UniProtKB/TrEMBL annotation:
Pathway: Protein modification; protein ubiquitination. Keywords: Ligase, Metal-binding, Nucleus, Transferase, Ubl conjugation pathway, Zinc, Zinc-finger. InterPro entries: EPHD (IPR034732), HECT_dom (IPR000569), Hect_E3_ubiquitin_ligase (IPR035983), PHD-type_Zinc_Finger (IPR051188), PHD_PHF7/G2E3-like (IPR059102), PHF7/G2E3_ePHD (IPR042013), Znf_FYVE_PHD (IPR011011), Znf_PHD (IPR001965). Its main location: nucleus. The lineage of its organism: Eukaryota, Metazoa, Chordata, Craniata, Vertebrata. CDD domains: ePHD_PHF7_G2E3_like, PHD_PHF7_G2E3_like. It is found in: Nucleus. It comes from Ibidorhyncha struthersii. Residues 1-115 form the PHD-type domain. GO terms for cellular component: nucleus. This is G2E3 ligase. GO terms for molecular function: ligase activity; ubiquitin-protein transferase activity; zinc ion binding. The keyword Transferase applies. The keyword Metal-binding applies. Pfam families: HECT (PF00632), PHD_G2E3 (PF26054), zf-HC5HC2H (PF13771).
Length: 728
């Protein structure tokens, strides 16, 4: 390795060792990451994971002048970040001397004297306990080789065991092995020098890792099998076709061995039959079908066995229209027909008068405004984390996504730094545009790109899609992080989240019930509708038959004995397609939204954040603009009246400019960001010839005129021409 000088190839300790023959270069990944004088200036596919070859050579030359405080050899590229500490060392030497390397944020390194340590209460008993990973004994002492869980009182680990587990589990599955806590546990382990790679778990990446689970049981378990070709012989569409137990699916029989005339006949193995008999459900099954055959509105819902005349399934398919388990029905406390819709004659309908409708609409708008104000106050509170230190992002507006991704992934980027935007294709940007306006324009372009990207699906209200390449490149995490940063740094909100996606983020996917509107795939939506609107048992079975492969792949095969079972089947399909299918992108997206504490606030104040994430911003009105601006220096009462009257004219269409033009003229933004403007917009009435929009201070300086016509003409002339020149 050009940085540490060692030939060891130990990925667990030093990271992957890579050799580049063309450049005559070999380097350990961790040696490169932790070196003090180098950062990622390239794309991910440039150089060594973004570290340019020229930069690596410069770092090698810099380190060649520094002596390692441990082995006393030259080439010490890593320095302790503690103030006034001048120790330098190689990465492997630091490991031997028990230094701490933090694989997060600025990739800080601490020498053996200044390294962070875990604090233990004096009252806490000392002794030995089991490492909850390897189960060997571990001493309960504050040592480098021993780490204590921050979330469990008596959970202790060997450092080496934790590091191996982190490398295997990755950021999505690495958690406390005792209480399953993730956030608190990961934060402490990163602080103590455990490297948690941003990748999926190793067991999720193995090809065909779960192949055994996809095999169907094909064996005749009848005591006296009649088939001369053996118990494993299965010939579809014949008496030697194997039928599996409708309850457990782990026992089978040839049709002939159980004297079954039709494949559609139900069959239970002896074990399941005895369980059902003991529970009393086996004998009650037929009684329940009679009880549920009567309904108050005259509709019938019989739990009938499929007739031998029902349409036959395609040859060779291991399919069955399974009976609904009585156990499932009892657990849900539902009658088999409880999900059926009442006929139209039994529904009560009510129409609101126009007056009542307008009143409700007005109340709803007031409620949304109140929630938006609450969201604005919460975001302002989160913005207190942002410090004056500036991070500049060079953005190409024509390639907004890649340039934003590069900026967010650069080593010196921190969400808590003040962001400054520099558009590289400056010809398309106005020279008069302020830093705040450039930043707002950048986030506006970025949110628009995300809305139309492959990471989301749907028309207006969007859910996460499943893009395997995006999962591999960790783009869902970056998208979540970008949205969080936009909200806190004064950018627009996405405004396109579906209610289902929002609820998954706030309440957890296990507590959300998706709807048909959440399905963006036309074919899947058509399949669901076929099942949902089937009006007979045979029609339902035919619909299931047509889409059996899809249902099997989705794991949605369930017992079907009556028409009303379709509702639970539809629910299973929706949960699989909308939630379970995208569980990995969702978890990654949630991690990104945790940036700057946004997700935590979303979970505490769901109503407030729902208004800015799931609803489009309220259309600008004269009242909104009037409330937005604070009037200063108004010695002339007429001027204030002229201003209010002009806003009303603009709103009613009696002007050549729009309310959005006025806002853009003053602030550089077409819309009001969720967090509001900083500084807050103000108005000054001065003895000047024409209006002036000071975007640095968000201040509108207006001329004092004798008549309203003069005021209006000056406003329209100035705003229209200023914006036209900017656009040109």
């Amino acid at each position: 390795c050009v940085l540490c000088g060692r030939t060891d190839d130990c990925p667990e300790k030093y990271g992957e060792k890579r050799t580049y023959v063309a450049y005559n270069l070999t380097v350990h990944y961790y040696c490169l990451l932790m070196s003090s004088g180098i950062w990622q200036r390239g794309e991910e596919d440039e150089g060594v994971d973004g570290f340019l070859i020229t930069d690596i050579r410069k770092e090698v030359n810099r380190a060649a002048r520094l002596k390692c405080n441990i082995c006393k050899k030259k080439g010490a590229s890593i320095g302790c970040v503690a103030p006034k500490c001048k120790r330098s060392y190689h990465f492997p030497c630091g490991i031997q001397k028990e230094c701490i390397f933090q694989f997060m944020e600025d990739f800080r390194s601490y020498c053996w004297e200044h390294k962070p340590v875990q604090k233990f209460p004096d009252k806490e008993s000392r002794g030995t306990s089991q490492c909850t990973i390897c189960l060997d004994l571990v001493e309960q002492l504050p040592m480098y080789t021993v780490l204590k869980s921050p979330c469990c009182k008596n959970a202790w680990f060997h450092r080496e065991c934790l590091q191996y587990q982190a490398l295997s589990a990755g950021i999505f599955f690495f958690r406390c092995s005792v209480c399953n806590n993730k956030d608190k546990f990961q934060k402490e382990m990163l602080r103590m020098g455990i490297h948690i790679p941003e990748k999926d778990a190793s067991w999720e990446l193995e090809e065909n890792a779960y192949q055994d689970l996809l095999q169907c049981y094909q064996h005749c378990d009848i005591k006296r099998c009649l088939c001369k070709k053996g118990r494993d012989y299965n010939e579809p569409d014949s008496k030697w076709e194997i039928k599996r137990c409708q309850c457990c699916g782990s026992r089978g029989t040839h049709l002939a061995c159980s004297s079954m005339k039709s494949w559609e006949q139900n069959w239970e193995c002896m074990e399941c039959r005895s369980i059902l008999a003991k529970s009393g459900n086996y004998s009650k099954q037929k009684k329940r079908s009679l009880a549920t055959s009567e309904k108050t509105d005259g509709t019938t819902c019989l739990l009938e066995e499929p007739s031998p005349k029902c349409p036959r399934q395609s040859p060779g398919s291991p399919r069955s229209f399974l009976l609904q388990s009585p156990k499932i029905m009892c657990q849900n406390n539902l009658s088999p027909c409880s999900h059926l819709e009442l006929p139209a004659s039994n529904r009560v309908t009510m129409s609101l008068s126009p007056l009542m409708s307008n009143r409700n609409c007005s109340l709803r708008k007031k409620h949304l405004r109140k929630q938006r104000r609450e969201a604005s106050n919460i975001l302002k509170e989160l913005k207190l984390q942002v410090n004056p230190k500036t991070t500049r992002l060079n953005i190409n507006a024509e390639n907004i996504w890649n340039s934003a991704l590069k900026g967010f992934r650069q080593r010196n980027f921190s969400p808590t730094n003040t962001i400054e935007i520099k558009f590289t294709n400056c010809k398309s940007r106005s020279k008069t545009e302020t830093s705040a306006a450039s930043k707002h324009h950048f986030f506006q372009l970025l949110m628009l790109h995300l809305q139309n990207s492959s990471l989301f699906e749907g028309s207006s209200a969007k859910n996460l899609s499943l893009d395997f390449q995006a999962v591999k490149e960790n783009l869902y995490f970056e998208a979540g992080r970008m949205i969080a940063v936009s909200l806190v740094h004064g950018g627009p909100s996405p405004c396109f989240f579906s209610k289902t996606l929002f609820n998954c983020l706030v309440y957890g996917p296990e507590n959300v019930k998706p709807a048909l509107e959440d399905v963006a795939d036309v074919e899947v939506a058509r399949t669901i509708k076929m099942i949902k609107y089937a009006n007979s048992l045979s029609g339902l079975q035919s619909a299931i038959h047509d889409c059996y492969e899809f249902l099997a792949a989705a794991g949605c095969i369930r017992p079907i004995t009556s028409l009303c079972d379709k509702n639970m089947l539809v629910n299973d399909i929706l949960i699989h397609h909308v939630i379970k299918r995208i569980i990995s992108p969702l978890e990654s997206f949630r991690q990104g939204l945790k940036t700057l504490g946004v997700l935590e606030k979303m979970q505490i104040h769901p109503d407030a954040f729902s208004t800015i994430l799931c609803h489009k911003p309220e259309r600008l009105s004269a009242e909104t603009i009037c409330d937005l601006f604070t009037i200063h220096s108004s010695s002339d009462v007429n001027s204030a009246d002229f201003w209010i009257g002009y806003l009303q004219d603009v709103e009613s269409g009696e002007s050549v400019v729009t309310l959005e033009d006025i806002l853009l003229f003053v602030t550089g933004s077409f819309s009001i960001p969720p967090i509001g403007f900083d500084p807050e917009p103000t108005i000054k009435f001065l003895h000047i010839r024409y209006p002036v929009g000071n975007r640095l201070l968000n201040c509108l300086e207006l001329p004092i005129t004798k008549t309203y016509e003069q005021f209006k003409n000056k406003m329209e002339f100035t705003i229209r021409n200023t914006l036209r020149v900017e656009r040109e």
